[in-house]
Specification:
Elements (H helix, E strand, L loop, with lengths): L1 H19 L4 E6 L4 H11 L4 E3 L13 E6 L3 H7 L3 H17 L3 E6 L8 H11 L4 E5 L7 H9 L2 E5 L6 H10 L4
Helix pairs in contact: 4-5
Amino acid sequence: MKLRKNAAVIVAVLCMSAAAWAGDVALTPIGQSPDGMMVRVVLRSLKVATDYEPLMKPESLKDQKVLVAVVGASSKGMGAAGINQEDELARAKALCEAAAGKGMKILVMHVGGEGRRGGSSNAFIEAASAYADDFIVVDGGNTDGLFDRLAAARKAEILTAPNVKGTKEPLKTLLAKWGIL
Protein backbone atom coordinates (compact mmCIF):
# COMPACT_ATOMS: atom_id res chain seq x y z
CA MET A 1 0.00 0.00 0.00
CA LYS A 2 2.74 2.44 0.98
CA LEU A 3 4.71 1.50 -2.14
CA ARG A 4 1.73 2.28 -4.36
CA LYS A 5 1.22 5.63 -2.66
CA ASN A 6 4.90 6.52 -3.12
CA ALA A 7 4.79 5.44 -6.74
CA ALA A 8 1.70 7.59 -7.32
CA VAL A 9 3.45 10.60 -5.77
CA ILE A 10 6.54 10.06 -7.93
CA VAL A 11 4.43 9.79 -11.09
CA ALA A 12 2.51 12.96 -10.20
CA VAL A 13 5.74 14.89 -9.55
CA LEU A 14 7.23 13.70 -12.84
CA CYS A 15 4.11 14.69 -14.76
CA MET A 16 4.09 18.15 -13.20
CA SER A 17 7.81 18.52 -13.81
CA ALA A 18 7.40 17.65 -17.48
CA ALA A 19 5.77 21.04 -18.05
CA ALA A 20 8.82 22.70 -16.50
CA TRP A 21 11.06 20.75 -18.89
CA ALA A 22 9.08 21.77 -21.95
CA GLY A 23 11.14 23.42 -24.64
CA ASP A 24 10.71 26.94 -25.93
CA VAL A 25 10.12 25.54 -29.41
CA ALA A 26 7.31 23.29 -30.60
CA LEU A 27 8.34 21.42 -33.76
CA THR A 28 6.18 19.41 -36.12
CA PRO A 29 6.20 18.32 -39.74
CA ILE A 30 3.21 19.55 -41.72
CA GLY A 31 2.73 16.90 -44.40
CA GLN A 32 4.52 14.15 -42.45
CA SER A 33 7.81 14.29 -44.33
CA PRO A 34 11.01 13.31 -42.49
CA ASP A 35 12.19 16.92 -42.90
CA GLY A 36 11.01 17.76 -39.38
CA MET A 37 13.49 15.29 -37.90
CA MET A 38 16.31 16.90 -39.89
CA VAL A 39 15.36 20.34 -38.54
CA ARG A 40 15.29 18.84 -35.05
CA VAL A 41 18.94 17.83 -35.48
CA VAL A 42 19.84 21.39 -36.50
CA LEU A 43 17.98 22.81 -33.50
CA ARG A 44 19.83 20.38 -31.21
CA SER A 45 23.14 21.64 -32.61
CA LEU A 46 22.01 25.11 -31.48
CA LYS A 47 21.20 23.64 -28.04
CA VAL A 48 17.53 24.58 -28.44
CA ALA A 49 15.13 22.45 -26.42
CA THR A 50 12.27 21.36 -28.65
CA ASP A 51 9.01 19.59 -28.12
CA TYR A 52 8.82 17.43 -31.24
CA GLU A 53 5.62 15.61 -32.16
CA PRO A 54 4.93 14.38 -35.69
CA LEU A 55 1.17 14.64 -35.07
CA MET A 56 1.22 17.63 -32.70
CA LYS A 57 -2.24 18.88 -31.82
CA PRO A 58 -3.31 22.25 -30.37
CA GLU A 59 -3.53 20.79 -26.85
CA SER A 60 0.20 19.96 -27.06
CA LEU A 61 1.00 23.67 -27.06
CA LYS A 62 1.84 24.71 -23.52
CA ASP A 63 4.34 27.44 -22.73
CA GLN A 64 6.40 27.29 -25.90
CA LYS A 65 7.27 30.58 -27.55
CA VAL A 66 7.72 29.41 -31.14
CA LEU A 67 6.04 26.88 -33.41
CA VAL A 68 8.29 25.58 -36.18
CA ALA A 69 6.14 24.06 -38.92
CA VAL A 70 8.29 22.11 -41.37
CA VAL A 71 6.22 21.84 -44.54
CA GLY A 72 6.48 19.15 -47.19
CA ALA A 73 4.26 16.23 -48.14
CA SER A 74 5.15 12.57 -47.82
CA SER A 75 2.48 10.08 -48.81
CA LYS A 76 4.54 7.37 -47.12
CA GLY A 77 4.70 9.45 -43.91
CA MET A 78 0.98 10.16 -43.93
CA GLY A 79 0.26 6.49 -44.61
CA ALA A 80 2.47 5.43 -41.69
CA ALA A 81 0.67 7.96 -39.47
CA GLY A 82 -2.72 6.62 -40.60
CA ILE A 83 -3.94 9.97 -41.91
CA ASN A 84 -4.81 11.46 -45.29
CA GLN A 85 -4.19 14.89 -46.77
CA GLU A 86 -7.48 16.32 -45.50
CA ASP A 87 -6.74 15.14 -41.93
CA GLU A 88 -3.26 16.67 -42.09
CA LEU A 89 -4.55 19.96 -43.47
CA ALA A 90 -7.13 20.16 -40.69
CA ARG A 91 -4.42 19.41 -38.09
CA ALA A 92 -2.11 22.04 -39.59
CA LYS A 93 -4.76 24.74 -39.58
CA ALA A 94 -5.95 23.96 -36.04
CA LEU A 95 -2.39 23.86 -34.69
CA CYS A 96 -1.28 27.08 -36.38
CA GLU A 97 -4.46 28.85 -35.34
CA ALA A 98 -3.96 27.77 -31.73
CA ALA A 99 -0.31 28.87 -31.77
CA ALA A 100 -1.26 32.26 -33.19
CA GLY A 101 -4.01 32.58 -30.58
CA LYS A 102 -1.43 31.98 -27.83
CA GLY A 103 0.79 34.71 -29.25
CA MET A 104 3.48 32.26 -30.34
CA LYS A 105 5.80 33.11 -33.22
CA ILE A 106 5.28 30.78 -36.17
CA LEU A 107 8.20 29.84 -38.36
CA VAL A 108 7.43 27.99 -41.58
CA MET A 109 10.40 26.02 -42.89
CA HIS A 110 10.70 24.31 -46.24
CA VAL A 111 13.86 22.24 -46.41
CA GLY A 112 12.92 19.67 -49.04
CA GLY A 113 13.84 21.86 -51.99
CA GLU A 114 12.21 21.40 -55.36
CA GLY A 115 11.64 17.70 -54.65
CA ARG A 116 9.09 18.51 -51.94
CA ARG A 117 7.06 20.95 -53.99
CA GLY A 118 3.92 20.51 -56.04
CA GLY A 119 0.34 19.39 -55.35
CA SER A 120 0.12 18.09 -51.80
CA SER A 121 3.18 19.96 -50.54
CA ASN A 122 1.85 23.26 -51.86
CA ALA A 123 -1.43 22.72 -50.00
CA PHE A 124 0.47 22.23 -46.72
CA ILE A 125 2.73 25.20 -47.47
CA GLU A 126 -0.27 27.47 -48.06
CA ALA A 127 -2.11 26.23 -44.96
CA ALA A 128 0.79 26.89 -42.58
CA SER A 129 1.93 30.07 -44.33
CA ALA A 130 -1.38 31.76 -43.58
CA TYR A 131 -0.07 32.09 -39.99
CA ALA A 132 3.68 32.56 -40.59
CA ASP A 133 5.72 35.26 -38.93
CA ASP A 134 8.79 34.33 -40.97
CA PHE A 135 10.11 31.68 -43.34
CA ILE A 136 13.27 29.68 -43.92
CA VAL A 137 13.46 28.09 -47.36
CA VAL A 138 16.32 26.08 -48.85
CA ASP A 139 17.65 26.83 -52.30
CA GLY A 140 15.44 25.34 -54.99
CA GLY A 141 12.34 25.47 -52.82
CA ASN A 142 11.07 28.79 -54.14
CA THR A 143 11.85 28.72 -57.85
CA ASP A 144 8.22 29.47 -58.70
CA GLY A 145 7.99 32.40 -56.24
CA LEU A 146 5.26 30.80 -54.10
CA PHE A 147 7.04 31.66 -50.85
CA ASP A 148 7.67 35.21 -52.10
CA ARG A 149 3.93 35.70 -52.61
CA LEU A 150 2.99 34.10 -49.29
CA ALA A 151 5.59 36.09 -47.35
CA ALA A 152 4.54 39.35 -49.00
CA ALA A 153 0.92 38.71 -47.99
CA ARG A 154 2.07 38.27 -44.36
CA LYS A 155 4.72 41.00 -44.45
CA ALA A 156 7.12 38.27 -43.36
CA GLU A 157 10.79 37.76 -44.05
CA ILE A 158 12.22 34.83 -46.01
CA LEU A 159 15.65 33.65 -44.97
CA THR A 160 17.36 31.21 -47.30
CA ALA A 161 19.89 28.44 -46.88
CA PRO A 162 21.77 26.23 -49.32
CA ASN A 163 20.59 23.01 -47.62
CA VAL A 164 19.18 21.65 -44.35
CA LYS A 165 22.51 21.91 -42.54
CA GLY A 166 22.77 25.50 -43.76
CA THR A 167 19.55 26.44 -41.94
CA LYS A 168 21.56 26.73 -38.71
CA GLU A 169 22.46 30.40 -39.24
CA PRO A 170 18.98 31.55 -40.31
CA LEU A 171 17.50 29.63 -37.36
CA LYS A 172 19.99 31.27 -35.02
CA THR A 173 19.06 34.70 -36.41
CA LEU A 174 15.30 34.26 -36.02
CA LEU A 175 15.43 32.52 -32.65
CA ALA A 176 17.66 35.29 -31.30
CA LYS A 177 15.23 37.89 -32.66
CA TRP A 178 12.42 36.09 -30.81
CA GLY A 179 14.33 35.76 -27.52
CA ILE A 180 15.03 32.04 -27.64
CA LEU A 181 18.82 32.24 -28.06
